[in-house]
Description:
- The chain is of the alpha+beta class.
- Helices cover 34% and strands 23% of the residues.
- The strands form 4 sheets. The protein has a 4-stranded antiparallel sheet. The protein has a 3-stranded antiparallel sheet with strand order 2-3-9. Strands 1-8 form a two-stranded antiparallel ribbon.
- Strand 4 and strand 5 (90-93) form a beta hairpin.
- The longest helix is centred in the first third of the chain and has 23 residues, at 26-48.
- The protein is globular and about 45 Å long.
Amino acid sequence: AGAALHACRAFPFEVAAAMREHGGDVGTALLTAFSRTEDCWNSWAHLAGDDSGATAQVCVIVEDRVGGQRAQLYVANAGDCRCIISRTGKALQVSHDHTASDKEEAERVVAAGGEVRAARDGSMRVGGVIEVTRSIGDRLLKPLGLSSVPQIHQVELEETDEFLVMASDGIWGWLSNQDVVDKVATTVKHVDFGPKRIVSEAFEAGSDDNMTAIVVYLKPAPSIRISSAN
């Protein structure tokens, strides 16, 4: 919990500071923000004896208000959170899940000197302990091959993009990408209602994992007429 709280509080400031330092190089700014967030947490965690960790995902939308180019979406991901876009009503996955069952991630862990092996439940885990391969914190597991370096994805936003969803694996383990898009699309476009719908649907489907969801609407919501009956 400690690492998650730290990341939540630190990233807005670290990303803003890194963006000022690196100008238009958004990818480098995001790498810098993750590195500083990791280093700051580990310095404190070492003194406090806190071994917690957290997956992390940051999205940045950059608009070209002078040149007229389309807006760019940058997604920095470390762990098994996922980001998707609703494009013409169809789910487009932007990020990549970092788990030990992924071939490329397993190879990266082994190349870093760690190992991937099956746990008692049959799931592949780093050192047989943890399923994710990238995170903030988890300082005692970093020697096993865990990394805090995010994978950066860049997507050009289109006119048909309606909203994006960022959510933890407690959602994606129970709802498909398209399920989430369909449910958000049929929910009142409000900053609270979309995420609450996603979390409640995953819970009803049987999820007992940590569930976090954010919905970012990319277009203004149409005016909604509210009437009351006395």
